[in-house]
């Protein structure tokens, strides 16, 4: 098997190494030695965007928050669902990830990031949520590994009871919160319900009908 070629490396806020690698036209992001995401496996990220945006796309001027830029698959899928009057705010904490996506030498999200509907912020999505009250019609969190973070330890604050209640407060009435997870998590599903959401769980292969089995939690605030 051909080896992965290291293209760039940076550090996370808590000192972990985050690396961009390439192999035969495929790209990979690793945190330390663990695989975080790949351009060869992205079906679940696209489903996340559709599940978050479909319920609100008919609203006038819908406003969507995406937590985590990754390789831009969630962003592009959201733009494909939403109309021309929408606004999509992307909060990404890692400057290297933003720079990799903006670099036209890589086939990531450079074009999507120049879409007039898109606002990209170098920001912890937890801060963006905490500073918002009834601002967003939908929130899609494609952050880390989901409720069991890999990249940044502080990401736990997105998935505890307080974080979920803050997300609920950031949503407009009838809004939608969708969260990507690398694995099923019944305890988190119960926690989300306890934070005031009606919850359903979707499962999706990472690459169409093959690859790893990922989980998406979809929540609508109860009145």
Kindly describe this structure.
With 223 residues, the protein is of the alpha/beta class. It has a single domain, classed as Vaccinia Virus protein VP39 (Rossmann fold), CATH 3.40.50. The chain has helices at residues 43-53, 73-81, 95-102, 110-113, 125-130, 161-170, 186-194, and strands spanning 5-11, 17-23, 26-31, 34-38, 63-67, 87-92, 118-122, 136-141, 171-181, 197-207, 210-221. A seven-stranded mixed sheet has the order 7-6-5-8-9-11-10, with helices on both faces. Helix 2 (73-81) links the parallel strand 5 (63-67) and strand 6. Helix 1 (43-53) packs parallel to helix 2. The longest helix is centred in the N-terminal third of the chain and has 11 residues, at 43-53. The radius of gyration is 16 Å and the shape is globular. The model has no long low-confidence stretch (mean pLDDT 92).
List its salient traits:
globular; 4-stranded antiparallel β-sheet; 223 residues; single chain
Q: What would the CATH topology be?
A: Rossmann fold
Task: Please provide the count of β strands.
Answer: 11
* Helix content estimate: 25-40%
Rg (C-alpha, Å): 16 Å
Ranges where pLDDT stays below 50 over 5 or more residues in a row are none
* First-residue to last-residue Cα separation: 54 Å
CATH class assignment: Alpha Beta
Silhouette: globular
CATH architecture: 3-Layer(aba) Sandwich
Write out the strand line-up for the largest beta sheet, numbering strands in chain order. 7-6-5-8-9-11-10
Number of continuous helical runs: 7
Taken together, the total number of domains comes to: 1
Output the structural class: alpha/beta
């Amino acid at each position: 098997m051909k080896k992965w070629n290291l293209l760039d490396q940076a550090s996370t806020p808590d000192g972990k190494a985050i690396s961009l690698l390439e192999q035969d036209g495929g790209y990979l992001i690793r945190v330390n030695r663990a695989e975080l995401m790949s351009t060869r496996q992205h079906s679940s990220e696209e489903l996340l965007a559709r599940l978050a945006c479909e319920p609100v796309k008919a609203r006038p001027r819908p406003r969507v928050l995406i937590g985590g830029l990754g390789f831009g698959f969630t962003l592009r899928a959201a733009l494909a669902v939403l109309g021309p009057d929408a606004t999509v705010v992307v909060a990404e904490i890692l400057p290297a990830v933003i720079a990799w996506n903006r670099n036209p030498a890589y086939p990531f999200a450079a074009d999507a990031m120049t879409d007039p509907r898109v606002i990209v912020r170098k920001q912890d999505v937890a801060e963006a949520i905490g500073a918002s009250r009834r601002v967003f019609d939908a929130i899609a969190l494609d952050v880390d590994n989901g409720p069991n973070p890999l990249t940044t330890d502080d990401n736990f604050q997105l998935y505890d009871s307080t974080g979920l209640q803050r997300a609920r407060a950031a949503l407009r009435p009838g809004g939608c919160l969708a969260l990507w997870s690398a694995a099923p998590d019944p305890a988190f599903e119960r926690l989300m319900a306890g934070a005031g959401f009606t919850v359903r769980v979707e499962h999706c292969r990472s690459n169409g009908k093959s690859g790893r089995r990922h989980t998406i939690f979809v929540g609508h605030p109860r009145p």
